[in-house]
C-alpha cells in the first residue's frame, strides 16, 4: 500500500460513506481529535516513572488514546446506525470515576490554575485545551448533522480529566500548581 494516493490533491478527502472537502466540519472535528491524540502520546512520553508514581496514569492515558480513535471513527461516518457506535456513556462514567480518584490526591484549589509546573503537567494542560477545541468542533458538526452524542459527552468529561491529572502530575512530583493571583476564590470543594 502506498502512502500517497493523490486523491486529495483537489482539496477533498474520503470519509466513511462519501467524500467531502478537507475543511468540512466533520474533518475538522475528527482531525482535532487526532491532534489531541498526538498530544496525549507526547504527554505519555514525558512520564518518567522510575519510581512507579505514574503507572496508573500511563495506563489510563493509553486507554484514552484508544478511545480517541473510537471518537474519531464515530464522527467519520456520514451515515451510521446507533448500534455501530464505539463510544458509549459508560466510558464517560468511567472518566468520572478516574476524575474523582485523581482529584482526591490533589491539594485544595480555590483560584484558577495557570498551566505549568512540571513538564508533564504542562503537556496535560495542552491536552485539556486541544480537547476543548475538539469538543467545540464536535458541537459545530452536531448542529447540522446527526452524531453520536456520547462523543460530545466523552470529550467534555475528558477535558475535565486532563485538568485534574495535570494537577495530580504536579502533586505527585511535589511541584506546586500556579494559581492565577488576580482570581477571586471561584472553586469550592465538595465536602
Automatic annotation (TrEMBL):
Top-level EC class as recorded in UniProt: transferase
Q: Name one GO molecular function term.
A: corrinoid adenosyltransferase activity
Q: What is its EC number?
A: 2.5.1.17
**Which keywords label this protein?**
ATP-binding, Cobalamin biosynthesis, Nucleotide-binding, Transferase
Family per similarity comment: Belongs to the Cob(I)alamin adenosyltransferase family.
Q: Which reaction equations make up its catalytic activity?
A: 2 cob(II)alamin + reduced [electron-transfer flavoprotein] + 2 ATP = 2 adenosylcob(III)alamin + 2 triphosphate + oxidized [electron-transfer flavoprotein] + 3 H(+); 2 cob(II)yrinate a,c diamide + reduced [electron-transfer flavoprotein] + 2 ATP = 2 adenosylcob(III)yrinate a,c-diamide + 2 triphosphate + oxidized [electron-transfer flavoprotein] + 3 H(+)
Q: Which residue ranges does the record assign to the Cobalamin adenosyltransferase-like domain?
A: 3-169
The record's annotation in PANTHER family points to: CORRINOID ADENOSYLTRANSFERASE (PTHR12213), CORRINOID ADENOSYLTRANSFERASE MMAB (PTHR12213:SF0)
This protein's species is: Paenibacillus illinoisensis
The reply on keyword Nucleotide-binding is yes
Q: What is this protein called?
A: Corrinoid adenosyltransferase
Amino acid at each position: 500500500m502506498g502512502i500517497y494516493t493523490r486523491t486529495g490533491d483537489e482539496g477533498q478527502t474520503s470519509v466513511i460513506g462519501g467524500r467531502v472537502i478537507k475543511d468540512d466540519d466533520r474533518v475538522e472535528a475528527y482531525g482535532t481529535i487526532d491532534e489531541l491524540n498526538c498530544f496525549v502520546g507526547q504527554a505519555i512520553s514525558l512520564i518518567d516513572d522510575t519510581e512507579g508514581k505514574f503507572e496508573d496514569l500511563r495506563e489510563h492515558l493509553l486507554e484514552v488514546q484508544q478511545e480517541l480513535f473510537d471518537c474519531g471513527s464515530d464522527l467519520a461516518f456520514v451515515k451510521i446506525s446507533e448500534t455501530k457506535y464505539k463510544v458509549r456513556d459508560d466510558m464517560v462514567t468511567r472518566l468520572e470515576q478516574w476524575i474523582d480518584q485523581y482529584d482526591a490526591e490533589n491539594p485544595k484549589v480555590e483560584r484558577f490554575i495557570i498551566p505549568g509546573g512540571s513538564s508533564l503537567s504542562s503537556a496535560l494542560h495542552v491536552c485539556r485545551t486541544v480537547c476543548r477545541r475538539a469538543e467545540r468542533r464536535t458541537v459545530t458538526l452536531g448542529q447540522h448533522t446527526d452524531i453520536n452524542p456520547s462523543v460530545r459527552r466523552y470529550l467534555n468529561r475528558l477535558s475535565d480529566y486532563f485538568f485534574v491529572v495535570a494537577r495530580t502530575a504536579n502533586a505527585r512530583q511535589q511541584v506546586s500548581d500556579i494559581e492565577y493571583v488576580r482570581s477571586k476564590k471561584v472553586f469550592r470543594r465538595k465536602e
